[in-house]
Amino acid sequence: QVQLVESGGGLVQAGGSLRLSCAASGRTFSNYAMAWFRQAPGKEREFVTFISRIGDRTYYADSVKGRFTISRDNAKNTMYLQMNSLKPEDTAVYYCAAQIRAWYTDKPEEYNYWGQGTQVTVSS
């Protein structure tokens, strides 16, 4: 089992930047493919971005492509989400998730472990 803890959320003006972190503990971090999801009030949880076990493959939702960057440091058991050019529609609770499979998926039900989430609020 792996435990995930997100941090770095907050309030930022439109056009600003935030960097989220997801710290993992428990099993070997590099055994897990990782992703970020987000959930806005009244909406379903949606896929944001994915990174493979060793970080050689990444995928992004069209809504964040070119603005967000996912990365991971397996030596530090940590994943990151650099968010630039933030928009009010990016406001949501952001969750990191881990899955034991190696292949890409954007379906939240296919992820095995979740963090508690961190709030990101972008003001206009």
Describe the structure.
It is a single chain. The strands form 2 sheets. Strands 2, 4, 5, 6, 9, 10 and 11 form a 7-stranded mixed sheet that branches. Strands 1-3-8-7 form a 4-stranded antiparallel sheet, with no helix packed on it. It has no helices and 11 strands. It is 0% helix and 51% strand. It is mostly beta strands. The mean pLDDT is 96. The relative contact order is 0.31. A hairpin with a 6-residue loop joins β4 and β5.
Overall 3D shape: globular
Mean pLDDT: 96
Give the percentage of residues in beta strands. over 45%
Summing up helix and strand content along with how strands pair, one would put the structural category as mainly beta
Q: Helical residue percent?
A: under 10%
N-to-C SSE series?
EEEEEEEEEEE
Radius of gyration: 13 Å
Largest sheet properties: 7 strands, mixed
Count helical runs. 0
Distance between the termini: 40 Å
In the predicted model, the low-confidence regions spanning at least 5 consecutive residues are none
Number of strands: 11
Provide a compact summary of the structure.
With 124 residues, the chain is an all-beta fold. It is 0% helix and 51% strand. The chain has no helices and eleven strands.
What labels would you give this structure?
mainly beta; seven-stranded mixed β-sheet; four-stranded antiparallel β-sheet; 0% helix; 124 residues
List the helices and strands and how they pair.
Blueprint: E1 2-7, E2 10-13, E3 18-26, E4 33-39, E5 46-51, E6 58-60, E7 68-73, E8 78-83, E9 92-99, E10 113-114, E11 118-123
